[in-house]
Design goal:
Helix 7 links the parallel strand 6 (about 175-180) and strand 7. The strands form 3 sheets. The chain has a 7-stranded mixed sheet with strand order 2-8-7-6-5-3-4, with helices on both faces. Strands 9-10-12 form a 3-stranded antiparallel sheet. A two-stranded parallel sheet has the order 1-11. The chain is globular. The two termini are about 35 Å apart. The protein has 2 domains: about 5-10 and about 260-380, Aspartate Aminotransferase, domain 1, CATH 3.90.1150.10; about 15-255, Aspartate Aminotransferase, domain 2 (3-Layer(aba) Sandwich), CATH 3.40.640.10. Helix content is about 40%, strand content about 15%. With about 375 residues, it is of the alpha/beta class. The protein has helices spanning about 15-25, 40-60, 75-90, 105-115, 130-140, 160-170, 190-195, 240-280, 305-315, 335-340, 345, 360-380, and strands at about 5, 65-70, 95-100, 120, 145, 175-180, 195-200, 210-215, 285, 295-300, 315-320, 350-355. The structure holds pyridoxal-5'-phosphate. Pyridoxal-5'-phosphate binds near residues 72, 74, 104, 149 and 153. Pyridoxal-5'-phosphate binds near residues 74, 149, 178 and 180. It catalyses: (sulfur carrier)-H + L-cysteine = (sulfur carrier)-SH + L-alanine. One of its GO terms (cellular component) is L-cysteine desulfurase complex. Keywords: 2Fe-2S, Cytoplasm, Iron, Iron-sulfur, Metal-binding, Pyridoxal phosphate, Transferase.
Length: about 375
């Protein structure tokens, strides 16, 4: 059986063979515990972790002391939000976030509410964007944190991060961003942009699953959520996942080198797919239709088709409806609902996300497949 063409890079990416190659020795020959300070096995592992820390820091213009390795972006978001809440609750207990955040932020904020904190969920416009003014208007004297995602995982829209960070700081709050979909895709400069805390995950940028980081600017304190041996300067205990960390570092290094060429190439392929669909299939529109969005992704609504049938009929391509993280449930995507789509429109929306190994042939094949399937489904209907 032929595998479907993979167009779901926002859900996860394959490990780049160069990343895998860098990781392999750290499972076997160099298996030491990076916290072992008494012998060469430990020192070697510690050195590899230090190199990876530099590679991650360099991509974001952070300091290597600021990188805290975690099990992924879910943990990084938990650590950022709960860690700041616990540390600074003597100052205030109000947090501002966005209604279209990933569940890893939204559910953490719900937990904060259970603990007695207050959370404001900002509503974006019909394209998924918020304005710095909305943040300013929501700020209160007891606001301790503003958490706004860099780029949305479902529709790819990029928030005005620098401006939002500036108004957060003007209001005396810290600024956190879930940058999981932006790291390695967009040039990020934590210093210039005024980002205090940033979450990322390796498996969204051609690294392995189960490893990520929270980058915490110097001077910003967080309460650890995992107590133990005091690893990561007391911010996240637990024996370091050395092969994973090496893989994340290598993935960051590759992303830094290849980002601009890759963005350009994928932008052309994405435009080819998007324009092809819009031109060849009537009653279609782009969700999050703004120039402020990631180059490798398009989320398209196909009106007057049954969403479930559509996905089932598209056997030759792998795409998602709504967010992969909520695909276990049959609810329409809350992100698309917030943009103003009806349930049916949300169900009949597909996210195509391209990546490093996408080819022109694959895109042309996908386009043809989608056109054929939608035409077949609409035969006999009034459209
Ligand atoms: C994938 C993703 C996460 C979760 O990352 P994990 O490393 O899988 O826990 C969080 N936020 C966004 C925006 C994501 O795309």
């Amino acid at each position: 059986m032929r595998l479907p063409v993979y167009l779901d890079y926002n859900a996860t990416t394959p490990v780049d063979p160069r990343v895998l190659e860098a990781m392999l020795p750290w499972f076997t020959e160099h298996f030491g515990n990076a916290a072992s300070r008494t012998h060469l096995y430990g020192w070697t592992a510690e050195e590899a972790v230090a190199t990876a820390r530099k590679q991650v820091a360099k991509l974001l213009r952070a300091n290597l002391k600021e990188v805290v390795f975690t099990s992924g972006a879910t943990e990084a978001n938990n650590l950022a939000i709960k860690g700041v809440f616990e540390k600074y609750s003597y100052k205030g207990t109000h947090i501002i976030t966005l209604a279209t955040e990933h569940k890893a932020v939204l559910d953490t904020c719900h937990h904060i509410e259970q603990l007695g904190g207050e959370v404001t969920y900002l509503m974006p416009d019909a394209n998924g964007l918020i304005t710095p003014k909305q943040v300013t208007d929501a700020l209160r004297p007891d606001t301790i944190l503003v958490s706004v995602m860099y780029a949305n995982n479902e529709i790819g829209v990029i928030q005005p991060i620098r401006e939002i960070a500036a108004v957060a700081h003007a209001g005396g709050a810290l600024f956190h961003t879930d940058a999981t979909q932006a790291v390695g895709k967009l040039p990020i400069d934590m210093v210039e942009e005024g980002i205090d805390l940033l979450s990322l995950s390796a498996h969204k940028l051609y690294g392995p699953k189960g490893i990520g980081a929270l980058v915490v600017r110097q001077g910003v304190e967080i309460t650890a959520q995992m107590d133990g041996g005091g690893h990561e300067r007391g911010r996240r205990s637990g024996t370091l996942n050395v092969p994973g960390i090496v893989g994340l570092g290598k993935a960051c290094e590759l992303a830094q080198k290849e980002m601009s060429a890759e963005t350009q190439r994928l932008g052309l392929l994405r435009d080819r797919l998007e324009k092809g669909i819009l031109a060849n299939i009537s009653h279609t529109f782009v969700n999050g239709n703004t120039p402020q969005r990631l180059a490798h992704l398009t989320n398209i609504c196909f009106e007057y088709v049954d969403g479930e049938n559509l996905l089932l009929s598209l056997k030759d391509i792998a795409v998602s409806t709504g967010s992969a993280c909520t695909s276990a449930s049959v609810l329409p995507s809350y992100v698309l609902k917030i943009l103003g789509l009806t349930d049916n429109q949300a169900y009949a929306s597909l996210r195509f996300s391209l990546g490093r190994f996408s080819t022109e042939e694959e895109i042309d094949f996908a386009l043809q497949h989608v056109v054929e399937v939608v035409e077949r489904m609409r035969v006999g209907s009034a459209v």
